[in-house]
Design goal:
Layout: E1 15-20, H1 27-34, E2 52-58, E3 61-67, H2 82-90, E4 94-97, H3 104-107, H4 109-119, E5 131-135, E6 141-145, H5 156-166, E7 172-176, H6 182-205
Parallel strand pairs: 1-3, 1-4, 6-7
Antiparallel strand pairs: 2-3, 5-7
Helix pairs in contact: 5-6
């Protein structure tokens, strides 16, 4: 494993897991105990101020764990560093909530966290929509669908192209097999652009 600073952490390995929780519930201790990364832990709140990555290898599978700063109620509206934390969570393959089991009945942290994530369109424990975004070097954007898109306004293709442009995705093949909304397209863009960058780096170094 290796530590890094800031929120723009490059994806690595076979999957990415974001550790989400309130301050001082054990996220840094968990990262340090299962990876070689030493994330600072202390008895006071907001010890972690940036995104700290670590790598866990299990049965030959390399998983990137991200220790994120604690978020608080109102994170979706920008309290604390909530927006940055949630943005990273959206690029992850799995969100793992870290809770203080001894205090959860009083704190209701799980309920609050689920509400904050739902507010920004991150729906936990639900099957991701079947949307495939394949990045390419040239050829522009080509959109195909096997189902009618009813949640993207009167001109779904125009909306999709606008969202892709926001994420600087100008060359890609997009296939929709599910009827999706704007938030789900944005999540697909985040993951697709991240994978495209990783693929581009790999091809460039080959």
């Amino acid at each position: 494993g290796g530590a890094g600073a800031g929120f723009a952490v490059q994806r690595s390995g076979d999957g990415r897991v974001a550790l989400i929780g309130f301050p001082s519930v054990g996220k840094s201790s968990l990262l340090s105990s299962v990876t070689e990364t030493k994330s600072e832990a202390a008895a006071y709140e907001f010890t972690t101020l940036t995104c700290i990555p670590g790598n866990l290898v299990y049965n030959g599978c390399k998983v990137q764990l991200l220790d994120l700063p604690g978020i608080i109620e109102g994170a979706a509206q920008g309290k604390g560093r909530g927006r940055e934390v949630i943005a990273v969570a959206k690029t992850s393959d799995l969100v793992m909530m870290v809770l203080d089991g001894g205090k959860e009945q009083v704190n209701r942290h799980r309920e609050i966290l689920e509400g904050e994530l739902e507010t920004v369109g991150l729906r936990l424990n639900k099957t991701p929509p079947n949307v495939v975004i394949r990045m390419k070097k040239t050829g522009g954007v080509r959109i195909n669908k096997t189902i009618q898109l009813t949640k993207l306004g009167e001109d779904p293709e125009k909306v999709v192209r606008q969202i892709l442009s926001e994420y600087k995705v100008h060359n890609a093949d997009v296939l929709f097999r599910d009827d999706v909304d704007v938030d789900q397209v944005r999540r697909g863009c985040l993951v697709g652009s991240a994978l495209g960058s990783a693929l581009g780096s790999a091809l460039g170094s080959a």
